[in-house]
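Re: weekly structure request thread

Next one in the queue (295 aa):
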Amino acid sequence: MDPKPSTRVTGVKRDISLLDRVAAEPGDTVTVLDVAVEKNRQSLDVLLSRGIEVFYVDHHNPGELPSAETFFPLINTAPEICTSALVNGHLSGAAAPWAVVGCYGDNLDSTAERIAATLTHSPDLRRWRELGILINYNAYGAELEDLHFHPAALYERLLPHNNPDDCLSADPDLYGTLQSGYHEDMGRGETATRLVDEASLAVLVLPDAPWARRVSGVLGNQLAVKTPDKAHAILTELDDGYLVSVRAPMTRRLGADTVCRQFTTGGGRAAAAGINHLPAALVDQFIGVMRQEYQ
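Done, posted below.
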């Protein structure tokens, strides 16, 4: 890679309209990672209309893609693919150790293990898996104040380390803070009220609290692993509705995006998707859509 001076634009996981905040000029190159084209299409079209080169890497449903000559998409919506795996492939395996961590964070254990098999050494994949889960856990929240670390600050702490093992050894405070927070939040999440608990579907409700917003995504991942034949939805209370996180069954990693895209603020990918705001009046409709998809 050819490092160049850059400006990073990031936010909490559900803050996906990031291209609205990109102030690029002709001659600049914009690299977009892990946010859906569809949710950023208007801002993307503005950048492309000005001749700005955009390299776009993602695994969410993109909708219709632009045809501009300066648009370079690397998009794959297959259920076992994530942005970490796509970037690693683009770099011909140069980022394999961190791609393994990223895949584990996206609950793609088999993909992580396939990439790990290309390494020349045998790492402690148990620790790499936990690190991936912890990094992913830090992304969830309604606002930056919910997170343990600002995403940009977390990136800066990970950046100096070519290998996850180096990071674990050199920055124990980072690992310790995330691990402690994760276990505390997950302990609370595992006692959450189950609005629905059926053979093929579980719907849990979490309160309007920072810990609940932090755990909403990783709790769904853990439940999917524990009961792989069941679809899961985590509803986290908001002032006037719910933040929704959906996980398809591990044995059929399809349909989560189909469910969520039926609601105004919904989107995501086949295996994991969400709704940024589900009005309380639509909860029964949402559960009905989940049943239709997974029963």
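The longest helix spans residues 172-189. The chain has a mean pLDDT of 94.
Next request, please.
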